[in-house]
TrEMBL record:
GO terms of biological process kind: regulation of glutamate receptor signaling pathway; regulation of postsynaptic membrane neurotransmitter receptor levels
Occurrences of domain DOMON (ranges): 10-132
Annotated source species: Patiria miniata
Domain of life: Eukaryota
SMART domains: DoH
Protein name: DOMON domain-containing protein
Pfam hit, one: DOMON
Region feature Disordered, mapped onto this chain: 167-191
């Protein structure tokens, strides 16, 4: 039993479950992109200082053992989006199929990254969803559309909390994630839904049409 989303319309989806016995969270996220998709956790709806989980498509010629994608834990520092290795994160899967990037990870609710930042997902955070292209060498470059950002904070470990997503928007002035062109497209037609299914929470971010079924 679980929620299903019509992948032809939704731009992003995230599903997560918290294991209270081990203080771990399993989080799967996906999006339509042939470059990268990411979910970030922010204290202020801006992009600097955020914890970022990113799913990146492998470049052409990645080899026979490639699953089509890889996961990276990253960190937004000012205008730069940097790799940020952290203990307590296990990659369950990473794939790129039919234009959909998907990654699943299990991580401690609290992790400490290589920039000496602490991110506790039992605290309240805004969630940001973004996508963008990759370079010829497979490195992520600046997002191609403005991130979609939740309108209010919520704790991923509190399954009774529900929050809605606002329109895709420009980050606050002076914030960003890496270099690249400022000629980007925003959306004023965003919608989302959060549903509780057993011990799982699911957030579907559809910038146009949202279809959910059982």
């Amino acid at each position: 039993m679980g929620l299903r989303v019509h992948s032809g319309f939704c731009d992003y989806a995230a599903e997560w479950s918290v294991n209270e016995d081990t203080d771990e969270i399993t989080l799967a996220f996906r999006g339509r992109s042939n470059g990268w998709v990411a979910v970030g956790f922010s204290g202020d709806q801006a992009m600097a200082g955020d914890d970022v989980l990113m799913c990146i498509a492998d470049p052409p010629g990645a080899g026979a053992n490639s699953t089509g994608a890889r996961f990276e834990h990253r960190y937004n520092y000012g205008y730069s989006n940097l790799p940020a290795e952290a203990e307590g994160i296990t990659v369950n899967s990473a794939s790129f199929t039919d234009g959909i990037l998907q990654c699943s990870v299990t991580r401690d609710l609290t992790v400490f990254n290589s920039s000496h930042m602490t991110f506790d997902l039992s605290s309240d955070w805004f969630m940001l969803f973004a996508q963008g292209p990759i370079s010829s060498s497979g490195q992520p470059v600046r997002h191609s559309v403005y991130p979609a950002i939740t309108d209010m904070k919520a704790s991923l470990s509190s399954l009774d909390e529900v929050f809605v997503l606002g329109e895709s928007r420009r980050p606050s002035p002076g914030q960003g994630d890496g270099g690249g062109s400022e000629d980007e497209t925003g959306s004023d037609n965003g919608s989302s839904a959060i549903q509780l299914t057993g011990h799982w929470m699911a957030l579907f971010v559809c910038l146009h049409v949202l279809l959910i079924g059982w």
